[in-house]
Amino acid sequence: MLDLKFIRDNPDKVKKACADRGKPADIDGLLTLDERRRKALKESEEIKRGKNIASDEIAQLIREKKDPKAKIAEMKAISEKEKALDEEVRAIEKDIQAALYNIPNIPHASIPVGKDASANKIVRSWGDGRKFSFKPRTHVELGEYLDIIDLPRATKISGTNFPLFKGDGAKLERSLINFMLDLHTKQHGYREVFPPFLVNRAAMTGTGQLPKFEEDMYRLKDDDLFLVPTAEVPLTNLHMNEILEEGDLPVYYTAYTACFRREAGSYGKETKGLMRVHQFDKVELVKFVKPASSYDELEKLVGNAETVLQKLGLQYRVVMLSTGDLSFSAAKCYDFEAFAPGVNAWLEVSSCSNFEDFQARRANIKYRIKETGKSEYVHTLNGSGVAMARTVIAILENYQNEDGSVTIPEVLRHYMDGRDRILPPKK
Question: How far apart, in whole angstroms, are the C-alpha atoms of residue 71 and residue 124?
Fold first, then answer.
């Protein structure tokens, strides 16, 4: 959430930021509400002063044994006006809050301006890509042949676009999760958390999923709880309404969760196999840092995600998102796309974002400056470290052999009972 004072002082900058994103917002309407609120507050203060004067006058009349009825009637009228004005202020403040919740973050000056993903910038690439002497199979074909992915049964028990891994497929998924958690906790300095997979409305609002994207979320209407779309939500809200100490920053957390998204706006997009599913596993990385260091911390976060892909030996590219492709809450974001030769496509497997104080302002997360004792909002960052199921697609399709078996990446063999290949089950 943007600071209302910042919007008041920089309306043209905020309007341009919204226009660059292709998400116009009624900034003038918000400022009109703000002016009404400030006018009403000023009037309310004047009424309170008049009320205090009337109260003193009533006391004086009583001391002088004079009839205070007229002044009491006047006091009552003032109180009724005060009550009506307070209700008006509360209604205006509610409208202001709703408007602020629907204004996106200001894009960082370093990112490309453009209306959509066509303006994204490839920052760097890693890996040369595998050359095949045979036509590579898709992950769907490999999953069926190896009997490790069973989409028909997933559809039978849950519906379309849900995954079901079994046998070595399930073990591969679990191995990836354990590998990434071990890497991030032992080498990158993150503290592991195992959070709830259901979160409340306040948590979803704090990270920016609500109110704007409620249609994309799975909600338990009887409890008003949401299935997590990402571990970013519970991890960031660990410190909701808290003041951290400056000496404790930066704070790094990592967590595995299943992630749930209705993908309500994905009609017409590629959904075959594991390309776009409603449930997927992800190891998430979240940082709470001081504002001055947040962009250095973003580059470190990018490096943490890159290490995962490099250790897995996957060809990938790092893409800086343009203003039109940037998520609602982010000020700057890098996507990671791994190449999958079977489907002949670059697949997004991670995003690393700096939200600056946008989420912290919504969730009221601050830090106390040691030298002055004053508190300021922290900057929050998050990244996928990394996400399945597209990482599984990239592994299966890049490591496949002509006979249909799949070589297991070396860093995962320890988690796969020391084996070096996934073979079809014996009949």
Answer: 77
Half-sphere exposure of 85 (CA within 13 A, CB side): 19
Helical pair 69-101 and 27-63, crossing angle rounded to 10 deg: 160
Q: Is 197 helix (H, G, I), strand (E, B) or coil?
A: coil
Residue 290 is encoded by which pair of tokens? 């001081």
Residue 346 lies in a domain: yes
Task: Clarify whether 8 is annotated catalytic.
Answer: no
Beta strands 332-340 and 375-377 are unpaired
- Geometric angle at alpha carbon 202, from 199 and 206, rounded to 5°: 100
The yes-or-no answer on residue 348 being catalytic is: yes
- Indicate the SS3 state at residue 257: strand
169-187 pLDDT, tens digit each? 999 999 999 999 999 999 9
Residue 411 and residue 332: Cα distance in Å, rounded?
31
57, 74, 348, 376: which is the annotated catalytic residue? 348
Burial of 77 (0-12, 13-18, 19+ CB in 10 A): exposed
Its pTM stands at 0.93
Q: Say whether both 351 and 382 belong to one domain.
A: yes
Helix ranges (DSSP H) in 158-237 = 168-186, 201-207, 232-236
Helices (H) and strands (E) in the chain, counts: 12, 16
> What is the 3-state secondary structure of 182-195?
HHHHHCCCCEEECC
Q: Where are the alpha helices (DSSP H) in 275-415?
A: 294-311, 358-363, 390-398
Catalytic residue flag (residue 261): yes
Same domain flag for 222 and 300: yes
Distance CA 69, CA 53 (A): 15
CATH number for the domain spanning 9: value is 1.10.287.40
Pairing of strands 365-368, 242-245: parallel
For the stretch 258-315, pLDDT in tens is 999 997 555 556 668 999 999 999 999 999 999 999 999 999 999 999 999 999 999 9
- The total of structural domains in the chain comes to 2
- Provide the residue type at 170 as one letter: A
Q: Does residue 421 have an active-site annotation?
A: no
Catalytic residue among 329, 350, 351, 353: 351
Reference 390, options 277, 312, 302, 311; nearest CA is 277
